Amino acid sequence: MLNLFTQARRAAGRAAVGATVLALAGLTVPAHAQETIKVGVLHSLSGTMAISETTLKDTVLFMVQEQNAKGGVLGKKLEAVVVDPASNWPLFAEKARELIAKDKVAVVFGCWTSVSRKSVLPVFKELNSILFYPVQYEGEESERNVFYTGAAPNQQAIPAVDYLMENEGVKRWVLAGTDYVYPRTTNKILEAYLKSKGVPAEDIMINYTPFGHSDWQTIVADIKKFGSAGKKTAVVSTINGDANVPFYKELGNQGIKATDIPVVAFSVGEEELAGIDTKPLVGHLAAWNYFQSVDTPANKDFIAKWQAYTKNPKRVTNDPMEATVIGFNMWVKAVEKAGTTEPDKVIPALIGVAVPNLSGGFSAMMPNHHITKPVLIGEIKDDGQFDIVEQTPGLIVAEEWSPHLEGSKDLISDWRSPLNCGNFNVKTGKCGGAGN
Amino acid sequence: MISSARLRRLSCALLLALCGLCGALFSQPAVAQDISSPLAQLATDSYADTEAALGALALSGSPAAAGIVSALADGKLVFSAVPRQVFLRTEAGLVDPLTLQPVADPPAVKPVRVNNRVRRAIEAANGTLSLVSPDPARRLEAATAVARSRDTAALPALDLALSKEADPKVKTALTLARASIVMGQPGVSDAERIAAIGLVGAEGNQDALAILQGVPAESSPAVKQAAADAIAGIERSLAMWSMAQNVWYGLSLGSVLLLAAIGLAITFGVMGVINMAHGEMVMLGAYTTFVVQDAIRTYNPGLFDWSLIIAIPLAFLFTGLIGVIIERTVIRFLYGRALETLLATWGISLILQQAIRTIFGPTNREVGAPSWMSGSFDIGQLAITSGRLWIIVFAILVFVALLATLRMTRIGLEMRAVTQNRRMAASMGIRTNWVDAMTFGLGSGIAGIAGVALSQIDNVSPNLGQSYIIDSFLVVVFGGVGNLWGTLVGAMSLGIANKLLEPYAGAVLGKIALLVIVILFIQKRPRGLFALKGRSIEA
Amino acid sequence: MSPSDTRPPALIPTNGLVFLGVLAAVAVLVPLLNLTTSPDAAVHVPTYVVSLLGKYLTYALLALSVDLIWGYVGILSLGQGAFFALGGYAMGMYLMRQIGTRGVYGDPVLPDFMVFLNWKELPWFWYGFDLFPFALLMVVLAPGILALVFGWFAFRSRVTGVYLSIITQAMTFALLLAFFRNDMGFGGNNGLTDFKDILGFNIQSDGTRAVLFFLSALALGLGYVLCRFLVRSHFGKVLIAIRDAETRVRFTGYRAENYKLVAFVVSAMLAGIAGALYVPQVGIINPSEFSPANSIEIIVWVAVGGRGTLVGAALGAVLVNYAKTYFTSGFLAPYWLFMLGGLFVAVTLFLPKGIVGTYYEWREKRRPPADAAGEPLPDPKPAE
Q: Are the C-beta atoms of residues C145 and C207 closer than 8 Å to each other?
């Protein structure tokens, strides 16, 4: 905290001088030794999303400190500029503009919800800056100025369903989610996928609930009833953050155990479990690209340093944190490759950059601005950690445009020349979506 | 009744159990087979192999099997890759699973891993062992499980078991199980089928419905008719039960609303303070519970079941104290300016939220359920979860206690006097300032107690209060400001209406419909359900 | 207070003239300095400041609409955000239709989120929004009709005080839940975003921003004059009488509910216009604008500035939002809620009449009343 204080105060003091110097020099590569490279952090520190996003702010600050200890980037120290968009979507756009236009940051790490990303997109396009987005999301997007280090639906949902089919013999599916874009898309993709695997429509139940839904009695009872038809049943949960705790508590209360009806979740990680008594939940599953329990030297080292940095030996790590770390390292590498922080040079340099991930492999930035990832399936243990029961043998490339959705099955994204397009239609051979 | 969830877990157990039973009954001596190959399978670090090994172990009749299975369940079974071998981890170190002798030169070992599939196999294997145990309850569970599995192969074993069974309850269950199997079998006479349908139909639950729907399509019309009649009967009774279930859910939701709103009924209803910080008082109560549980976990884990009981008075005192402080420093300057209390308390709520976020962090905090609040039981087709039942009981207790305080104690009398006519009360010698502080403290303290209960069903996070504030105001206004009974009736009717609407309209539309209904209701009765009677035109 | 002063107050009092003068200066200077000076110049106004100030101005108009009904009629609406959001959605729907084939899927008719959810055709309530005049009409009609229906029910059955406040809150909460639903056809939680142009002008260009800014200032100025005109007229006197003693007004033969209804509908329409100007400047409209907390915040702006002063409401909106912008950046970011919360408590305790109200009080104490500017609130009644 103290560190952040001094940094910020220094920033405030130097902002005016720095800006003028920059403006006069008219270049992004000044020779001044004191010059720093600014890194924007756009995560909610208050409001409903603070619960998830605060950790990512800490992660970026931690990475900045680590990088500075290694000597910074291009011989300059990094400096984090933290703002609080307060879980307010228009405020995200305002703060993004402030970071880029006023603070002149070289890159922004931020956003969690899809709506916050959608809100800042036009700003990043207009002011031509770089956003690293670290959370699993619904796909159906590929923008020149955004790099997606979280999972696309095919990097999380489909391997999880495969696992349940093969290992647990699941025949009947409940797709339960919060009513917003990510669950809607994921469930659409899963529904198409399950049907292609021969699951009849009456064996799929889809249910949507509002944000922060807290009374799950009726829905859990429905799931229980749906699961008593004699076929092995599983729940695929895309229930969002806050609603998960009462959902799992109700599952426990109504005596549904993982051996009866397993629940596989895509939004429940170590941070979320820290708020739940996990003893009744042992055996329920989650699919991610990283777990704290990953048994690699790189991960152990990272956890030790992270816990030392936060001065909390119990502080957990999670998947979006790893995605932030990967994104940060990729940016550093690309800046060093390009020799400048100028977005027009860094954006092409980022494609093809590969950095070690924490699960023992290398993640690479693909031409569609998404990264390759392994998929891990974990079962909840009674200590709030995950027991990894399955890991895909190789890395999976993101399908930013899902082949299972009508509107996007002909689209691809490739930001290299000569294509340079986020929504190229392979049928019409034109950039710009499915239309004419 | 046994919960249906447990039944399914046992269905696997049953297959194995019956095989074991057959083996025993057909008087083949249980030869202790060589279990070295399943043991080697346990050491391959593959879930499929572990599962297969468990099946083999359960049927082996080896005296060591039970020990190995329970060690696996407890995570005490370890293996070494080279040589491929398993060991039991005991306090004395690694021991051989067969001889139980310590291993002289232990290799590097890892625990044999368990997933859902293996966990099910463990339960199945344990089931086999328990079925031979003389406990009739276990046999009963097994019989009910076979009724659901409808495995034709189990029929001879069932017949055999039926002939030996003495316990009438188990016998009924076995008969039922037999009937379930007979129904779907080819070559069974119509009379036997119809009898079976009658037996199953009498059960009247969801399982019976599933069994009856499995009557083969090629059955004779008489059989089909009998099945259809039975199905119709069950569906009728299930519809009734599901109505009862919805009412129960409604009562449960109503009790949550009551708890959330009852403190507000004091600070807002009685004192007229538009207390936007009410939700944060609930949150503080929940955090008090967390702190109490944390302390208990650290210093005296044995007291964990008492943690909520301990937290209740502490939460009351703590949030009550905060309430008194807020009243003395802010609210007391704002009496008579109700709308400005909205502004000030909104500010206070922001401060409290951020304070908690700074102290405890923005993430959820874990509040566990004591053992007496976990689990569920059935009444007929009605599933009652203990946690919810306790919350209803607790809500009613709080309500009664509050009512009694206001009606029967001196401070209650003074509170009513001050809120009804401040000047008159003051001239009678009541210290109105002190009473104001106490009243606000009481309302806040009650909110804190509600937080203890709500920590059992919701997130303990800085946002906890925000999610209840709108509903709380709605309940108080709907019931009629200034009337505790109105709050009770308001909470319960909103809860039940919500849950009756939910199955038809879905969670979201149901809630929207309810809000519209409340808005329209207020048009009809602009002062709520139980309006205070008075002569004043402008209250 | 000037009970003996019988002259009708001026349409625009001195402080109003100051307000309008400052507003006019800002409306002209800010876009001018943004467009004509080079970015290095000392007087240059960066684009992000223009859009920020533009947002404040729409908030100020929204606050004005609240002050009209709260300050002068005594209706504490905790649902004013709903009218604001409805106006915003109407404008957002027009902007969505303008995207045309430039959406990521390139569908000429359907907005992206509909293609995404596999909708085959445009829902009926989206018809007409490709026409700007129709969208403009809906900007005032949608909130206006909702206010008319809601107000007609509420005022006719004499729902007043906190009861009215709570049901307005229930109204905006119900709309929040409804707009969150993806099946509603308004884009669910993501709302409407990624706008391209308005009336053929690129929405991100500095020129368009400058015009939008100017229009926001103009709307605020006109809104202020309209409100002044209303409260100063005979109609306005009745409104103030209703605020102070509704029953007496009714006993004198006035149909109080009709007066309230007109004020309520006008206020909703003003809020709708504010919303319509807000959306193109911030670039997104989403159901969270319906959240009850937002509506409470609007009340807070008015209270900070001074209830029943009009100028104060606008000032409060700008000040509180500037504070929010300032506190949410830099090292203060983790603590800004303390500041904001503390500000609200402090204002109620030490400036119960708000900034402008307190200024009036202070001025009246110093010299005998010259012009009765705002309509001062009655002294608080003791709790009964």
A: no
Would you state the pLDDT for residue C368? Answer: 59
DSSP β-ladder status, B77-80 and B85-90: antiparallel
Distance, in Å, from the CA atom of B343 to the CA atom of B275, rounded to the nearest integer, reads 9
| Nearby residues of A78 by Cβ (< 8 Å), 6 or more positions away | A36, A37, A38, A39, A64, A67, A68, A72
Domain ranges of chain B: 4-133, 241-464
**Structural domains of chain A sorted by starting position, each given as residue range(s) with its CATH number in brackets:** 2-152+297-372 (3.40.50.2300), 154-294+377-391 (3.40.50.2300)
In this structure, are residues B263 and B281 in contact, taking their beta carbons and an 8 Å threshold?
Answer: yes
Kindly report, residue by residue over A341-368, the tens digit of the pLDDT: 999 999 999 999 999 999 988 999 999 9
Among A82, A115, A436, beta carbon nearest to C333:
A82
Burial of C76 (0-12, 13-18, 19+ CB in 10 A): buried
What φ, ψ does residue A234 adopt, rounded to 5°?
-135, 155
Could you write out the DSSP letters of every residue in B33-90?
A: ---HHHHHHHTT--HHHHHHHHHHHHHH--TTHHHHHHHHHTT-EEEETTTTEEEEEE
Whole-number pLDDT of residue A18: 41
Residue of C nearest to A82 (CA): C330
Confidence bin at A27 (pLDDT 50/70/90): very low
**Residue B161: partners with Cβ closer than 8 Å, 6 or more residues away:** B18, B21, B143, B174
Tell whether C141 lies on the interface with B, counting CB pairs under 8 A.
Answer: no
Buried b (16+ CB within 10 A) or exposed e, A304-319: eebeebeeeeebbbbb
Query: Angle at CA B179, nearest 5°, toward B173 and B183?
Result: 155
Distance (Å, whole) CA C86 – CA C93 = 10
Q: What is the pLDDT of residues B236-246, one digit of tens each?
A: 888 888 899 99
Integer Cα distance of B84 and B97 in angstroms: 13
Task: Please tell me which residue of chain B has the smallest CA distance to A257.
Answer: B5
Complex ipTM: 0.88
Closest chain B residue to the Cα of C340, Cα to Cα = B347
CA C344 to CA C293: how far, in whole Å? 14
> What's the CA gap between C257 and A5, in Å, rounded?
56
Tell whether B503 is within 8 A of chain A (Cβ): yes
CB A434 within 8 A of CB C105: yes
Q: Cα B188–B192–B194 angle (5° rounding)?
A: 115
**A180/C188 CB distance under 8 A:** yes
Distance from CA of A19 to the nearest CA of C (A): 10
Name the β-bridge partners of C288: none
The DSSP bridge partners found for residue A411 are: A425
- Six-digit token string for B94: 């690694």
Minimal Cα distance from C292: which residue of B?
Answer: B470
Instruction: Report residue C269 CA to chain centroid gap.
Output: 10
Beta-carbon contacts of residue A266 (< 8 Å; ≥ 6 apart):
A136, A156, A157, A160, A186, A236, A237, A238, A286, A287, A288
Cα A37 to Cα A40, A82, A107, B331: the distances in Å are 10, 14, 9, 49
Q: Which two tokens stand for residue A8?
A: 């910020």
At the topology level of CATH, where does C16-366 sit? ABC transporter involved in vitamin B12 uptake, BtuC (1.10.3470)
For the segment A153-211, what is each residue's pLDDT rounded down to a tens digit? 999 988 999 999 988 889 999 999 988 888 988 998 899 999 999 999 999 999 998 88
Asked if B422 and B323 count as a contact pair (C-beta separation under 8 A), the reply is no
Neighbours of C380 (CB within 10 A): 14
Q: Token digits for A22?
A: 């920059």
A421 forms beta bridges with A414
Q: Which residues in B lie closer than 8 A to residue C181 (C-beta atoms)?
A: 508-509
- Among A260, A279, A382, pick the best mutation site for testing chain B contact (most B Cβ within 10 A): A260
